[in-house]
Amino acid sequence: MKTSFDLSDYPLWTALVTPFDANDQVDYDVLTRLVAEQTAAGNGILLLGSTGEGLALTLAEQQQIVQFVCDLNPQVPLMVAVGGINLHAQLAWLAFCNTLPIHAYLLGSPLYAKPGVVGQTQWFDALLSHTELPCMIYNVPGRSAVAIAPEVLTNLSHHNNLWALKEASGDISKFEAFRKAAPQVKVFSGDDGLMPYFAQAGASGLVSVAANAWPQQTAEFVRRSLAGTFPNLFTTWTDAVNSLFTVANPIPVKVLMHQQGKLATPHLRPPLTHLELDNTAALSAANDTILAWN
User: Fold this and answer.
1) Where does the chain have alpha helices with state H?
2) Which domains does the chain have, with CATH numbers?
3) Catalytic residues, which ones?
């Protein structure tokens, strides 16, 4: 039975990594511990996003991961990513997930094709129409190769389940444009380091990579950012968070979590590999900084 959550109580969502063992199989024992750690911190959990290497998994693996985490019955809300290029496949994925006790979706823009306003509107309209769950649209032009136009949100405003936008373009002016285009839609930062700035502009929270490594500390960082009464948050966190993006995410965070003992191996699915990161000094320094932060 699905537990009811007020999503406004969860300003931090952890884009959970997918742990693998040395044989390239999903490590469900480690996954259990990661879910428990996020639950203890009170963070919402996002499954199968880009940090979770969702598109590197087979459909069977995706289904098994979502079913497995649902069966753990964590006492925090679960969001599942919907992303790819084939609309029929995404609708089938929604149909599967709609049968499970999850609480929200992250809807990515279609990859590679670079649709314009009409194509984007049609894509998201179809996805939003195939579920009643709250949906967060994901603007990440660095990965999808196309930026979501603010007017797309206006075009979709008739959908009552259009709950939020994850803004990860790194451009504060885009944030403002989205706010004006759809004032009823909550905007979440998709960039850990920019959270204090986005909070000042009216952000509702953060979808985080850093919370994988530092769940409690990142939750406090978000609380302080939203409170707006703690100076120097940006300075304190910038260097530490930037260490997680020196090469493609989630390579650095998986390497760090392996160093921390959270992951048995830093293994990633090809084409990503931890061998891209040949110097981990910045990660170690960042870990010391954040763990000492108060």
Assistant:
1) 28-41, 59-72, 87-97, 117-129, 141-144, 150-155, 172-181, 195-200, 215-227, 233-242, 251-260, 281-291
2) 7-231 (3.20.20.70)
3) 138, 166
